[in-house]
Amino acid sequence: MDFDFSADQRALAEAIQRIVADHRDLPRTGNVVEPRAFHPATEMEAALAGGGFFDIALEDECGAVEAAILVYEAGLSPLVLETGASVLIAPLLTGEALSRPVAVARLSDLTRGVRFLSEARTLIVDLGDDVAVVDMGAHEVVPLDGVYAYPIGKFAAEPDLSAARRLGAGKAGELRRLWRLALALDIAAAMQAATDFTTDYVKQRQVFGRPVGSFQAVQHRLAADAEKCRGTYWLAIKAAWSGSPLDAALAALQAQRAVTQVNYDMHQFNGALGMTLEHALHLWTFRLRWLVGEMGGYRTQAADVAALAWPDAPRKAG
Description:
The radius of gyration is 20 Å and the shape is globular.
């Protein structure tokens, strides 16, 4: 079942929804959408910044739930905007607003591509126990081309983190909790947007003289996908409210487990058109292709769920 937001939280969500709705148009050349792997949400970012929304987690009477609302609502847009790290992770981890965009990575990720690293001004690194906060001004990053609907970057050379600010022993656990929460919200938003887009499409697409969406088999699978979307969303909102590492791990696990089936269904129901760059579907489903493996994928989340739920249980070697 759904939980209720407070009046202030509902007002916040509605204000963000209006901004997202006003700045969701894809750039076009004539009547054709410009064929890109992703489109930056430049105008939406300016509108949210002008309203002070990026600092919502640090406002009096606000916190993780309010930040989660922004991350989710912005993630519904076909345009890409970095919010999870700068709106939710960074302020709740450090108690301050870091220079955004912010990228987040594990130490082992620094030899390969990292989401948003190509444009990041700050990088937060999970060192295992401690956390490093890196000013990206002194580091050279190479943007990576690919099908993923995010800006991806890689360090031109292995970074030296010796001068980076450290947050202290034990902070990595809190980073992972917040990262999992942001990850679940990003996935929930992309899945919901792809499902909504596909639901509209199958109402219009005709086969055998009737809409694709009129077939019961299509309706059943879309209903199951809608359940996955809402279940993921409310698990993430609960995790934001509770502050529980177990709740965050469960939300991330549910999110990453749901991606494969949702992505499969959305592309099947959109047909070959869904793979084209002028069709908006890929702007969400190709985000999901990246997010499904972030933080080690669902097997890592499942192992940590078990460790958090049963901390005293014996562990099998290997």
